[in-house]
Amino acid sequence: MIRILLADDHAVVRAGYRRLLDAEPGLTVVGEAASGAEAYAQVVAEPPDVVVLDLNLGDGSGLEVLRRMLAREPALKVLVFSMYDSAAHATQALRAGATGYLTKSSEPGAMIEAVREVAAGRQVIAPDVAQAIAREVVDDDRVFSRLTPREFEVVRMLVRGDTTQRIAEQMHLSPKTVFNYLSLIRQKLGVDSDFKLLHLAMRHGLMS
């Protein structure tokens, strides 16, 4: 039996996928979490086989939660389930340790198959995201691959409108450290202002 934890801040999404997964033989949802803190606490208390994790969690960074969960339980399998279909989001999630990346535009059956594949240790990438990654490789346009997963998460949170203080709180960092990250990020990406950084993010599909 594959034991699954659903981590998404939308109750209706969790309820829908719980019904879908529980109806499948060999799959059972053992817990739900509406926040990163809840997801991490459940992993600590009773590690599941697979965590289905949204990147947008109300209390913090999905990639940061992913990093913390895997630091605690290295054998854990994580399937990121996200609204973002950009190559940059998927690449950074996989670099942070996710076993699979599925978009919320995927058919319900894709979730069932992805959970089984991830539980078996096989990497899964949504077809639309795989195509985006391939295009970046062909075009040599992988600008955000220069960033570490933590640096990318700072950018992602800045793009969604979080303040430096909010980013610091959600990533358990000091505001000064976040400022230092932003300075390093701008240097790596060759931009000299947050405005140009946001424009670059928009061009590469990081803004929904």
From TrEMBL:
Keywords recorded for this protein, A-Z: DNA-binding, Phosphoprotein
| UniProt domain Response regulatory: residue ranges | 3-119
HTH luxR-type domain residues: 140-205
Name of the protein described by the UniProt record: Two-component response regulator
Species lineage: Bacteria, Pseudomonadati, Pseudomonadota, Betaproteobacteria, Burkholderiales
- What PROSITE patterns does this protein's entry cite? HTH_LUXR_2, RESPONSE_REGULATORY
Residue(s) carrying 4-aspartylphosphate: 54
Give the GO biological process terms. phosphorelay signal transduction system; regulation of DNA-templated transcription
State one Pfam family annotation: Response_reg
GO molecular function annotation: DNA binding
UniProt-listed Gene3D superfamilies: 3.40.50.2300
